[in-house]
């Protein structure tokens, strides 16, 4: 190596471990105020662009679907956007589109988000429409029917058809299909396990939607995060005018039932494709767990840190077996979950599965090197500033603390807790959670790979059809 | 990238949007280095971070073999003579042997006759690759970025361009400049053959195992007869397997010349300091001539083109019309048309296909400017029928709606609604450093300057109802149409 190259490499190394001056900067904390009906609001002013963004976080999602009526929450939240007592269906569409106001609704498992984005000049009307969508949706207040198309709002009947069509189309999407079944099996024995089906969608009535709405869309189940070109005082006044007088009581907030742990089972979905997707999962620490910090580093080393992770380096870089491979760590509020995945050419299914198992066994039995741990800690510390890269991100993070009842210093003390993680403890945590006997493996791929796996790996449970 | 995200990105990127109204262009620092690299720096202090983009004007349309621009993008993650090597003198020797063996293997495979020789070369290549690995640390370039807090560390290749992007804490400016300069001065194509397999698998993952991917490939190959927009950016599988080390090295030397490079920084950055750092590290790359092959002009389409994909998959319908690209004035009318047809629940196709008593579609989306904007392109409509067997009805309904647009034009209120929507979408795109940087990088790479962004909203404001009707009449004709669909295998 030439001397200049040695110097250059050395400089890079120095730079690589240099402490980041920005690491402790959270910026200014959001302003918090409470509406007259008790809804907390976290707000960050940002005057650079003439926009306002408001996220209404509702504690309600598919975990609230009644048994046999899976898909109710998805339909109900979507239907809220289809018209209100004040803004009937055609009016709301015309008004929102004419003013370029965007109201989008995302239904999650335990919470859903109604998000508003508007130009500053239309803030008053945008907030009024948002409040109307939340407090008086036609799906609850009108005489719509879900069964007789001629007595119904066309949009809501279509929503049911689209939900069913999306279920039928799952078979065309290997990734969506395998992840859906992965979640179902990981949450065995709980509401999260249940999947919407053609039958359950058909069975949903208007009163089911209304019941769920009344149960979950209430002031005490809502938090708001906002940012934009407006002052906190003005936003508080406007939100109070639009939403502050709304009163409603709904379901009590109760803890979720815990699922049964995976038991090492292997599942296979037969799909005629040149590609297999392998997903392997474990229970993992929940967000508020003392082990969450150890596990974040463990996950990053195994597969969460992209190019430099063990999975990526061995499966992709060294062998060229996969384009997409890695791991994810879902830090749920009630239960955490880790998933390891690889998308591979079908003929490489078994070698890659064995490689994944070997990497996991190595993590469990041999732990992690101090170099890997140092690199990962540096990465988390230096990247932390991006957690709050936009004013809206900042408002959302503080709303989350309140929503999930996390410690007030969850973010301000985050890096300190990451720094306190050590290799010995990580090894204990890895051995506790990454257990082959408490894993679940699911593969989607062609029949010939199933046959080979049955010869080499013993009992495989085949998921027939598409499972709905 | 998923189709929907891809379309959204393309549509947004295709907007040569105006930043003048916000004063962004006026605040931008622009400089061309003596070697031809163009630098654009925009300061904003919403967070102590910087988003970095480097763009090269080379994409799927460039070169003799398809997939080369995309494969090169992968190879630029493999480190350099300085980054990753444990003993470069030794490494260089063995790397030469890996390359020579790989090239010989490619030649034998192309002949396909001597299976014994192929097996011997495969074994030799495996041994040499293993031996080579003793002399470098894989993924060292990624390690440097990731350990220093990188987010959005990635690259992307389209038909028109290649981007390398990363966002870092603001105190990492010099680190970024060092790494990126070294990446362009001393790249080593390590793990060449394993990475070629990765790219082949990427093609399987994104195209060959995904009905939407297969249909898009068929759509472009049908709509374009001669122009390279007909080829997939990832490459045809045979071409991917034929991309040799020698070819890729020449491709790099040609297309990554400084004159074919732009740099964009957005974030908490001091422009004079940043310019000095960029000049110090990247200003000494020698300029070199960029040779481009002749890009064939797509001949005028003189009749409808149709194609079907028979698959065990649910049905889909893609329709496209040839049209001129930017800066042709008709583009702005197409922007409005796209919005009027499918933006929002009150849009024409949403109402006529979805919000009706017997819905025909579960989704419909119009997109102006696919697959790129360096050359004349397509105005497209992508529709998903709500139930099997309604494909023909869906096509008829779309055709009727387009005919009505051409015959009766649009209302003034629709025009105003579309203009509001475009303005809102544009502002939304600027909210993050990364969003603004990608938009600026696109404009600078493809059009040569962010000045092309200057008057977009003004041009949009000038579109009149009669412009939209004229454009519909002129371009949305049967003779100019391509229709492809997935028909479910019985």
Care to give the gist of this entry?
The complex is a heterodimer of chains A (468) and B (490). Chain A contains 18 helices and 12 strands.
3D structure, described in words:
The complex is a heterodimer of chains A (468) and B (490). With 468 residues, chain A is an alpha+beta fold. Chain A is built from 18 helices and 12 strands. Chain A has 2 domains: 31-244, Cytochrome Bc1 Complex, Chain A, domain 1 (2-Layer Sandwich), CATH 3.30.830.10; 266-404 and 412-463, Cytochrome Bc1 Complex, Chain A, domain 1 (2-Layer Sandwich). In chain A, 44% of the residues lie in helices and 18% in strands. In chain A, α12 (310-318) runs antiparallel to α13. The longest helix of chain A is centred in the last third of the chain and has 18 residues, at 349-366. Chain B folds into 2 domains: 19-85 and 136-282, Cytochrome Bc1 Complex, Chain A, domain 1 (2-Layer Sandwich), CATH 3.30.830; 305-488, Cytochrome Bc1 Complex, Chain A, domain 1 (2-Layer Sandwich). Residues 1-20 of chain B have low confidence and may be disordered.
């Amino acid at each position: 190596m030439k001397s200049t190259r040695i110097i250059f490499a050395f400089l890079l190394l120095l730079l690589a471990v240099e402490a980041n001056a920005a690491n402790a900067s959270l910026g200014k904390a959001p302003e918090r105020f409470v509406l007259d009906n008790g809804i907390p609001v976290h707000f960050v002013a940002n005057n650079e662009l003439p926009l306002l963004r408001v996220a209404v976080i509702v504690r309600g999602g598919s975990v609230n679907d009644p048994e046999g009526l899976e898909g109710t929450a998805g339909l109900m939240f979507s239907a809220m956007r289809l018209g209100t007592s004040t803004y009937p269906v055609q009016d709301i569409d015309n008004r929102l589109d004419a003013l370029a106001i965007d109201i989008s609704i995302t239904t999650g498992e335990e919470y859903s988000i109604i998000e508003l984005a508007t130009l500053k000049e239309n803030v008053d009307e945008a907030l009024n429409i948002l409040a109307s969508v939340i407090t008086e949706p036609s799906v609850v207040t009108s005489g719509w029917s879900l069964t007789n198309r001629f007595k119904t709002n066309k949009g809501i009947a279509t929503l049911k058809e689209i939900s069913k069509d999306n279920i039928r189309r799952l078979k065309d999407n290997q990734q969506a299909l395998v992840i859906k079944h992965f979640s179902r099996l990981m949450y065995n024995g709980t509401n999260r396990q249940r999947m919407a089906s053609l039958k359950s969608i058909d069975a949903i009535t208007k009163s089911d939607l209304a019941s769920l709405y009344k149960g979950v869309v209430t002031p005490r189940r809502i938090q708001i995060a906002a940012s934009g070109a407006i002052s906190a005082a003005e936003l508080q006044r406007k939100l109070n005018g639009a939403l502050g007088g709304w009163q409603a009581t709904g379901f009590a907030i109760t803890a979720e039932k815990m699922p049964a742990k995976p038991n090492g089972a292997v599942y296979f979905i037969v799909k005629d494709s040149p590609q297999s997707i392998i997903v392997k999962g474990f229970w993992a620490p929940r967000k508020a767990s003392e082990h969450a910090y150890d596990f974040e580093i463990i996950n990053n080393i195994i597969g969460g840190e992209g190019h430099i992770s063990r999975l990526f380096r061995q499966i992709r870089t060294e062998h060229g077996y996969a384009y997409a491979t890695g791991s994810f760590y879902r830090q749920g509020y009630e239960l955490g979950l880790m998933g390891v995945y690889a998308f591979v050419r079908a003929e490489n299914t078994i070698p890659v599965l064995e490689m994944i198992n070997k990497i996991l066994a190595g993590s469990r039995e041999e732990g992690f090197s101090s170099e890997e741990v140092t690199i990962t800690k540096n990465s988390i510390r230096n990247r932390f500033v991006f957690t709050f890269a936009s004013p809206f991100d900042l408002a959302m993070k503080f709303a989350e603390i309140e929503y999930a009842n996390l410690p007030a210093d969850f973010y301000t003390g985050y890096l300190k807790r990451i720094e306190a993680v050590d290799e010995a403890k990580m090894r204990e945590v890895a051995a506790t959670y990454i257990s082959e006997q408490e894993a679940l493996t699911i593969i989607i791929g062609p029949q010939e790979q199933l046959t080979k796996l049955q010869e080499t790996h013993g009992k495989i449970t085949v998921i027939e059809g598409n499972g709905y | 990238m998923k189709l929907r995200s891809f379309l959204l990105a393309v549509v947004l990127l295709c907007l040569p949007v105006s930043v003048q109204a916000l004063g962004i262009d006026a605040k931008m620092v622009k400089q061309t280095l003596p070697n031809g690299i163009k630098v654009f720096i925009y300061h904003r202090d919403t967070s102590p971070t910087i988003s970095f983009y480097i763009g090269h004007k080379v994409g799927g349309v460039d070169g003799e073999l398809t997939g080369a621009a995309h494969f090169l993008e992968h190879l630029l993650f493999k480190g350099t003579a300085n980054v990753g090597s444990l003993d470069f003198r030794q490494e260089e020797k063995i790397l030469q042997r890996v390359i020579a063996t790989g090239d010989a293997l490619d030649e034998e495979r192309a002949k396909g006759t001597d299976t014994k020789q192929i097996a011997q070369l495969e074994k030799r290549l495996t041994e040499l690759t293993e031996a080579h690995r003793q002399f470098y640390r894989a993924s060292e370039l990624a390690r440097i970025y990731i350990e220093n807090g990188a987010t959005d560390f990635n690259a992307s290749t389209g038909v028109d361009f290649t981007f390398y992007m990363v966002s870092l804490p603001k105190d990492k400016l010099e680190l970024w400049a060092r790494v990126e300069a070294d990446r362009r001065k001393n790249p080593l194509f390590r793990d060449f053959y394993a990475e070629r397999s990765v790219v082949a698998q990427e093609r399987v993952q994104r195209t060959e195992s995904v009905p939407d991917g297969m249909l898009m490939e068929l759509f472009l190959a049908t709509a374009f007869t001669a122009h390279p927009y007909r080829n997939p950016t990832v490459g045809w599988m045979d071409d991917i397997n034929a991309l040799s080390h020698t070819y890729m090295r020449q491709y790099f030397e040609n297309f990554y010349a400084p004159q074919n490079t732009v740099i964009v920084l957005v974030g908490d950055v001091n422009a004079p300091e940043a310019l000095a750092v960029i000049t110090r590290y990247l200003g000494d790359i020698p300029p070199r001539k960029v040779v481009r092959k002749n890009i064939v002009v797509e001949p005028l389409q003189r009749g409808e083109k149709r194609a079907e994909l028979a698959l065990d998959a649910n049905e889909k319908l893609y329709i496209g019309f040839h049209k001129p690209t930017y800066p042709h004035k008709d583009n702005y009318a197409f922007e409005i048309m796209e919005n009027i047809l499918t933006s929002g629940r009150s849009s024409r196709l949403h109402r006529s296909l979805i919000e009706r008593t017997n819905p025909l579609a579960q989704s419909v989306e119009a997109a102006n400017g696919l697959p790129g904007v360096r050359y004349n392109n397509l105005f497209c409509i992508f529709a998903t029928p709500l139930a099997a067997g309604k494909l023909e009805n869906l096509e008829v309904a779309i055709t009727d709606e387009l005919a009505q647009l051409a015959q009766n034009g649009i209302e003034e209120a629709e025009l105003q609604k579309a203009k509001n929507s475009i303005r809102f979408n544009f502002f939304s795109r600027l909210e993050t450093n990364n969003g603004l940087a990608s938009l600026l990088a696109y404009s600078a790479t493809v059009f040569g300057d962010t000045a092309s962004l200057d008057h977009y909203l003004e041009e949009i404001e000038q579109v009149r109802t009669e412009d939209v009707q004229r454009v519909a009449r002129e371009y949305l004709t049967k003779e100019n149409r391509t229709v492809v669909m997935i028909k479910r295998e019985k």
